[in-house]
Write a structure and sequence with these properties.
By secondary structure, the chain is an alpha/beta fold. It is 38% helix and 17% strand. Helix 10 (189-201) runs parallel beside helix 11 (219-236).
Length: 390
């Protein structure tokens, strides 16, 4: 074979690899599991009990995307988010960034086409409490200089300061020179969070994990902060994995960006889809509980009918170290039947773009012929067999 032919073959291989990377999802999470020992190392020797913080989640994210993870405290939102951006090693399953397995890349750097440090740079995080995320003894300009010194060492002091000034203006902190000289305690909570957002964007990331990023702000500032996040998403072409226990915040952000809401319960996604579809006509009873409890964030939402009683049989969440059999929500669900206690549902199509892990979405499932569990007549919303309504 000639040298020209060899070169042509190598060029074809390179083109195929580039095409494969371009076609790959920004993030591709497959059957992710993150389990913890509940009582430390000693107890782990005595028992096989594990806290199933994330227990078999599959999720993918595209460029310029927004996915909001919503659920009660302890549902696994933060653990899933930290795993997605390479901060928490999974027990099982895989997480791929642009077709590259994150943890395989870290474990075998010599055999990887991309460095783990590059993956981590492309995935940034905004914490809930900005006051603890910013060094109180350093000025804003010093805080923002550190990532630039590490990732853009070619910049001199003047160029760094010019970049910092520009990013402070991006996050509406003007005059930028004045804010650059302040310490974190001289900023309001909203201003501190803007600094953390600007610091994340300095890395030109592909994904930002916003972990309860607006929950510590006053209600009047939450919409302002979310609008800023949406504006900067268009400028920097980044994606957000937005974690919240507040359905109203998740609804606002995803609705204005054609994103998706993923409802989490005890380590699993139980419903996912466009916000209008998931929240207007939820297919999973747990989503109905969250919708009932969510305060309205927009004026027109305040006019919707609200039930007098929550559509749930029990308030307490089961122990994640000893979750119920079958559908994990069946112990609290007012629609539960024997099939729910025996079988674990998958995410089924609901007839639109959403999917829900509930047998009630299937017209021909044995759920409809199984016996109701005790307590359904005490509280809840109506459940009608599709065959009866036809």
């Amino acid at each position: 074979m000639s040298a020209d032919a060899d070169a042509a073959d190598e060029a074809d291989i390179d083109e195929e690899e580039e095409s494969s990377e371009e076609d790959a999802k920004l993030l591709d999470i497959d059957d992710l599991k993150v389990h913890f020992d509940p009582g430390g190392q000693i107890r782990s020797w005595l028992t096989d009990t594990k806290v199933r913080a994330v227990d078999g989640v599959s999720l993918d994210m595209d460029e310029h995307d927004i996915i909001a993870l919503v659920g009660e405290s302890g549902s696994g939102k933060t653990t899933l988010g930290k795993s997605a951006v390479g901060l928490q090693k999974p027990t099982d399953g895989s997480i791929e960034y642009r077709g590259h397995d994150i943890w395989e890349t870290k474990a075998n750097p010599r055999h990887s086409e991309i460095e783990f440090s590059e993956i981590r740079r492309s995935m940034q995080i905004i914490h809930q409490d900005p006051s603890t995320a910013l060094n109180s003894s350093r000025r804003v300009r010093s805080i923002l200089s550190d990532p630039l010194k590490k990732w853009r060492p070619e910049l001199g002091p003047d160029d760094r300061m010019e970049t910092i000034t520009r990013f402070l203006e991006y996050v509406d902190m003007t005059p930028a020179e004045d804010y650059a000289d302040r310490y974190p305690h001289q900023l309001s909570g909203g201003e501190q969070q803007r600094v953390t957002l600007g610091r994340a964007l300095l890395m030109n990331p592909d994904v930002i994990l916003a972990d309860e990023a607006v929950s510590a702000l006053d209600v009047s500032l939450r919409v302002e902060m979310m609008d800023l996040m949406l504006e900067l998403q268009d400028i920097f072409n980044t994606s957000y994995l937005f974690i919240s226990h507040d359905l109203a915040n998740a609804r606002y952000l995803t609705k204005h960006a054609d994103g998706e809401i993923a409802i989490m319960y005890l380590g699993n996604i139980v419903e996912i889809g466009p916000p209008d579809e998931v929240l207007t006509d939820p297919s999973h009873p747990y989503t109905e509980v969250l919708r009932w409890a969510a305060p309205p964030i927009e004026p027109e939402a305040a006019q919707r009918a609200i039930k007098e009683k929550p559509p749930v049989r029990r308030i307490d969440i089961p122990d994640p170290a000893d979750p119920p059999s079958g559908c994990k929500f069946h112990t609290r669900c007012p629609e539960a039947r024997e099939a729910c206690a025996d079988q674990e549902p998958e995410l089924y199509d609901t007839g639109g773009e959403a999917r829900a892990a509930c047998f009630r979405t299937l017209d021909d499932h044995e759920y409809w012929d199984s016996t109701e569990l005790e307590g359904q007549d005490e509280i809840g919303f109506s459940s009608t067999n599709p065959e009866d309504s036809s």
